[in-house]
């Protein structure tokens, strides 16, 4: 009878399951886009969007990010202390992928926060959509737009616009 | 008196078991949850990282420690419900529990950090820094294991406990034995320079899941069983308290504990003689 070599089989199994970085990239980007589509549908799918786009997908992306950093951080060159060192970090494909997942996770998280905040503050969803689009493409720019929108909403006298009253 | 392991006899709507753990010992339960959550990114790292150490993926060891320490803390959080009532809120206990969790955090950072650098954590004498850290971590390991001893003594001395006496004895004995067996087994292993007995230069064929060597002695076997006295002995105590009278159950727990210690001693001796566990060498 052949002796069973547990650990080696686990390693072999993991190697077979090992996806290329490109596949992981595609998978993460597609998942994030699904989250953004759910946010666009959030006036209809409120609870689902809150849970999936605001919690589940960012959590899954965070797990993948953490695993990538654990596995490859010590073998990357560069660091956080200067621009050229940060650029050197991203010359390692695994770390560049981790950086991309960082964008995907945090942008989606901010997008879901915008949707929730707009709902609580009675900001019409149609005005949030451009902010979502900006956040999706250029993260902080979308946050900036949404902050302006919130400020405008806070300044608007509610007495004259009863439909905006919370 | 009832055994009340899961508190099922209280008929009022009870919160889920996990919530109960947080009600008994929030610090241990929270730390157990964090360790369990670490399993997910560690599995990802294991799937992506091709580096190996002693023939196995570098992340297998952090994975094992995350699971083992999570189980340890979750069990203690559960047993915390059987401590004398006011102990948990006393200042000495809070600072003690804090240092136990801090010791576990330091161990995890060390073990996962070494894995991230693709190097060994235990038995690493490659540089003065690593050798010094290894010794420090040995001390911290005693601190974290001492929580089993403290819990065991407190539960054994808690005469007003609502637990069935024989079951309480099994929980207390199991915890105390976990401490002493772990300190002896792990302490010996730490001072012997590696977990294999015999050939340390080649990769050992290993048992599924546990990774114990199948062609030479492996000191981790005795460490595993010794440390799990806090599970095996109470499980036995639970069953015999259901079946037998109080005095018979009490005697059965004492006999079982003695047999269990003998069994751990046997696995220890077997490893020392260079023989694998549960394998007949040709």
Major β-sheet profile of chain A: none
Strand content of chain B: under 5%
Globular, elongated, flat, extended or rod-shaped: what is the shape of chain B?
globular
Structural class of chain A: mainly alpha
Q: Over the alpha carbons, how many angstroms does the gyration radius of chain A reach? A: 21 Å
Average pLDDT for all residues of chain B: 88
Shape type of chain A: elongated
Low-confidence stretches of chain B: none
Strand pairing plus helix content of chain B: what structural class?
mainly alpha
**Total strand count of chain B, please?**
4
Strand content of the residues of chain A, in percent?
under 5%
Q: What series of H and E elements makes up the topology of chain B?
A: HHEEHHHHEEHHH
Main sheet properties of chain B: 2 strands, antiparallel
User: What is the H/E string of chain A?
Assistant: HHHHHH
Largest protein-protein interface: A-B, 25 and 31 residues
Determine the mean pLDDT of chain A: 87
Please list the strands of the largest sheet of chain B in the order they lie side by side: 1-2
């Amino acid at each position: 009878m052949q002796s069973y070599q547990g650990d080696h089989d686990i390693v072999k199994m993991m190697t077979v399951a090992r996806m290329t970085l490109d596949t992981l990239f595609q998978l993460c980007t597609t998942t994030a886009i699904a989250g953004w589509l759910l946010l666009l549908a959030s006036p209809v799918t409120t609870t689902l969007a809150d849970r999936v786009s605001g919690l589940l997908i960012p959590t899954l992306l965070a797990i993948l990010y953490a695993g990538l950093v654990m596995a490859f951080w010590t073998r990357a060159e560069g660091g956080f202390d200067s621009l050229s060192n940060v650029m050197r970090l991203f010359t390692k494909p695994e770390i560049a992928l981790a950086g991309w997942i960082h964008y995907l996770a945090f942008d989606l998280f901010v997008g879901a926060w915008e949707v929730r905040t707009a709902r609580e503050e009675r900001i019409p969803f149609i005005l949030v959509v451009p902010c979502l689009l900006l956040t999706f493409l250029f993260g902080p720019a979308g946050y900036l737009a949404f902050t302006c929108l919130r400020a405008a909403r806070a300044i608007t006298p509610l007495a004259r616009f009863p439909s905006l009253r919370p | 008196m009832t055994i009340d392991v899961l508190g099922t006899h209280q008929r009022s709507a009870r919160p889920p078991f996990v919530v109960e753990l947080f009600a008994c010992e929030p610090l241990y339960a929270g730390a157990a949850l964090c360790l369990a959550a670490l399993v997910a990114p560690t599995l990802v790292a294991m799937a992506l990282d091709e580096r190996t150490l002693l023939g196995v993926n570098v992340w297998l060891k952090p994975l094992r420690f995350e699971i083992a320490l999570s189980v340890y803390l979750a069990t203690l959080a559960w047993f915390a419900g059987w401590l004398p009532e006011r102990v948990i809120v006393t200042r000495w206990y809070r600072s003690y529990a804090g240092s136990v969790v801090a010791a576990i955090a330091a161990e995890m950072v060390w073990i996962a950090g070494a894995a991230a650098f693709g190097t060994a954590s235990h038995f690493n004498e490659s540089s003065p820094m690593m050798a010094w850290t290894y010794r420090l971590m040995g001390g911290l390991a005693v601190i974290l294991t001492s929580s089993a001893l403290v819990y065991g003594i407190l539960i054994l001395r808690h005469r007003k406990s609502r637990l069935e006496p024989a079951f309480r004895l099994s929980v207390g004995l199991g915890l105390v034995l976990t401490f002493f067996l772990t300190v002896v087994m792990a302490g010996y292993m730490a001072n012997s320079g590696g977990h294999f007995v015999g050939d340390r230069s080649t990769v050992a064929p290993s048992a599924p899941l546990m990774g114990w060597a199948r062609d030479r002695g492996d000191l981790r076997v005795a460490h595993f069983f010794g440390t799990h006295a806090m599970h095996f002995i109470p499980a036995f105590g639970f069953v015999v308290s259901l079946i037998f009278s109080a005095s018979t159950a009490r005697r059965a727990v004492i006999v079982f504990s003695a047999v269990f210690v003998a069994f751990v001693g046997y696995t220890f001796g077997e490893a020392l003689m260079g023989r694998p566990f549960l394998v007949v060498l040709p």
